[in-house]
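A favour, since you know our structure tokens better than I do. Just paste the record in under my message, thanks.
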Amino acid sequence: MRIKFLLATISILIWSICVSMLANPESPLASYKIAVMKYNGGGDWYSNPTSVPNLVKYCNQFLSMSIDEDVPYVDAGSIELFNYPFIHMTGHGNVVFNSQEADNLRKYLLAGGFLHISDNYGMDKFIRTEMAKVFPELEFIELPFNHPIYHQKYEFKKGLPKIHEHDSKAPQGFGLIYEGRLVCFYDFECDLGDGWEDSDVHNDSNEARTKALQMGANIIQYVFNGNKD
């Protein structure tokens, strides 16, 4: 147990140094990595397989970033989570975090990590309960349209774009804010991740896909700029 604790502590220290470098893109040691989170409960964590790789390519092209185009899947309870400053999570159905996974995810987010959750329709009632295990002291709050995440390279004066229609509801962007820092952004009634997919997957218009990719690029830029409000 002591060895595992020591390894976890070392990993967090290394992670903190990496986060500091990521907040300063001019550093020659700075690197950018993104992963997709696997979770238990039966939900399809593997949905939208082309979405994040496409977003990475978009950011590299239009934001002049150098994000690794290899986008792996990482278990919620794995120490490997700390290798990635940005984690994406999606799905349609059930999500379950056990106590170890919730604790690991909390430590990851408190150490400087960031979680983006994209509801692929049907995830909402599960993710709210499970994220309450991670941050029982916090609640999702809707971010106002003037929040910096909507005003990075691309302007979204009315918040999230609507990519797919489900329940005739407006898209909403929610956040978990810990000690003044946005640690989790959750897009709801938006299907942002669907808009990042290859064009022939959903046959979305070029306009819809472009808006989705631009909003995704804003999220990436906001996080890698150090979550500066």
Q: What stands out?
A: Residues 1-30 have pLDDT under 50 and may be disordered. The chain has seven helices and seven strands.
